[in-house]
Each structure stands twice: as structure tokens, then as C-alpha cells.
Amino acid sequence: EVQLVESGGGLVQAGGSLRLSCAASGFTFDGYAIGWFRQTPGKELQGVSCISSSGGSIYYADSVKGRFTISIDSAKNTVYLQMNILEPEDTAVYYCNAIHFWGQGTQVTVSS
Q1: For 70-93, what is the mean pLDDT?
Q2: Which of helix, strand or coil describes residue 9?
């Protein structure tokens, strides 16, 4: 079965850190880009960051540059999103995506 599974969300105070994981099963990331997106109720899905399977190409949304770091462990078929200096505005459900596959999402809540 092909699936993406996110984990690592939770409740954290402003200024804190979380690390999200996106583990793939049933396929490999080879040759594809993997992206992190987030959504809050009533708002559109927002692209946060993406990485090529080689790790050589990386994109960050302006709102997270300097605070978030995306990385990939090809051996584990897992992509990570290290989120530092979290702000209440980062509160959202975070999803990972590869090809047309989406994970179930993981909630990140940042309290002020």
C-alpha cells in the first residue's frame, strides 16, 4: 500500500521547536520532489517547503525562511521539517506531498 505518514506535531510555546517527519511506504522518493504544506481553517493550502529527492534543490516560503529546515534521509525514505522559533501564525495542520500522494496531516499548535 502506498502511503505517506506524517508525525511530530504537537503543542508548543512560541519560540519553541518541533520536528515533523514524513515517511513513505510503498514507493520511494527517488526522482520526485517532496513538499510540506499547511492549512488553517478557512484558509487556502499554503506551500511551506519542498526538497528534491537528491536534496540538491530546496525551497522555502518567505514566512518560514531562516526558521525552518527541510531535509531528506533517502535510506529511511523520510523527509523532515525542523521548525524553530515557532510563532502562533505557524499553527496549522501540516501535510506532506509527493507525486499525487498526501499524508493525513499532523497538527501543529503554537501558543503565545
Answers
A1: 97
A2: coil
